[in-house]
Amino acid sequence: MKIRLAFAGISFAMAFTAAAQNFPVKPIRLVVPFPPGGTVDVTARAIGPALSEVLGQNVMIDNRSGAQGLTGSDLVAKSAPDGYTLLLGSNSTLSVAPSLQKKSPYDPVRDFAPISLIGMTPFVLVVHPSVPAKNMKEFISVAKSKPNAMTMGSGGVGHLVGELFQSMTGTKFLHVPFQGVGPAGIALMGGHVDLLFDQLANSVGPIQSGKTRAIAISSKERSTVLPAIPTMYESGVKNFEVTSITGILAPVGTQPEVIKKVNEAVHKVLNVPAVKKRFTSIALETIPGAPEQFENYIKEDYARWTKVVKDANIPRN
Q1: Do residues 8 and 91 both lie within one domain?
Q2: Could you tell me if 113 and 261 lie in one domain?
Q3: What is the pLDDT of residues 58-76, one digit of tens each?
Q4: What is the residue range of 127's domain?
Q5: With CB atoms counted within 10 Å of each terminal CB, which end of the chain scores lower, N or C?
Q6: pLDDT in tens, 119-175
Q7: Which residues of 17-111 form beta strands (DSSP E)?
């Protein structure tokens, strides 16, 4: 009986390895844990067609929003580790949402197999045009004159970016959460909230059209897409450097051969001229890398925002 079980185990392992080597043989689902319209969704739709072509199978974008990105991310974490259900993750789902939970449904370090980083963009402090401030000095003055009167929308990591900003500048805002940065941006343009710390990639259009006003960005250098926007450092908020990333992950336990194939496909896709042009137009910098690099980033970023939550005494759900 033991010999039969041993042979059965060997046969199963060989079949599993063969399946990984032949990957992919059917369509792949790329889960976006937010509604359409945000940076994660835009990134997915920018790489989806090219990724389908490189892998030889249709890559279907599946928006599974809910619970600040926890719902869709947990779906992937609990999916079969065969490479056919992947997550387009971000700081929101890999660092912020879990750090705000007393008991997250998944562990961002333990429950995923990172495949590759994709893009990076700085954050930008944007306000509704009705806010009487055109630069950082004026903005901080207005905010301090009316503590907790200005409303700050958020749909993910922007919440904690805002908390970090408040702790560094002595300002106080009234937080208004939304189910994703898309809805938060719409609320800002409609004048339902006063300000938003949003990914620059998501805010380029509204800023250029005058529907929102940019105060400062969180990168070391100014954006080549919107060079008129000063950095936080230039604006007097020192050591405020925050970026937002996106990357592809699989459920933990996914075979190394599958991870390698998807990683290589991502690298090829990010060199496709049409994809590079799309990323550049919305201030997204491509940052492909090895799975280990992405894994280290997740560990460090999760620790960073967990500390922000603790230091700011933010209630955990």
Answers
A1: yes
A2: yes
A3: 999 999 988 888 999 999 9
A4: 122-217
A5: N
A6: 998 999 999 999 999 999 999 999 999 999 999 999 777 888 999 999 999 999 999
A7: 28-32, 59-63, 85-90
- Helices marked H in 63-199: 70-77, 91, 97-99, 136-145, 158-169, 181-189
Structure tokens at 130: 């009705």
Task: Domain count for the chain, please give it.
Answer: 2
Q: Six-digit token pair at 153?
A: 């929308």
Residues linked to residue 85 through DSSP beta bridges, in sequence order: 29
CA–CA gap between residue 315 and residue 149 (Å, rounded): 20
- State the pTM of this model: 0.81
Q: What is the CATH number of the domain that holds 144?
A: 3.40.190.10
Pair 143, 185 in one domain: yes
At residue 166, what are phi and psi to the nearest 5 degrees? -65, -40
Give the Cα separation of 313 and 117 in Å (integer).
31
Tell me the three state secondary structure of residue 59: strand
Whether 113 and 130 map to the same domain: the answer is no
Q: Does any domain span residue 235? A: no
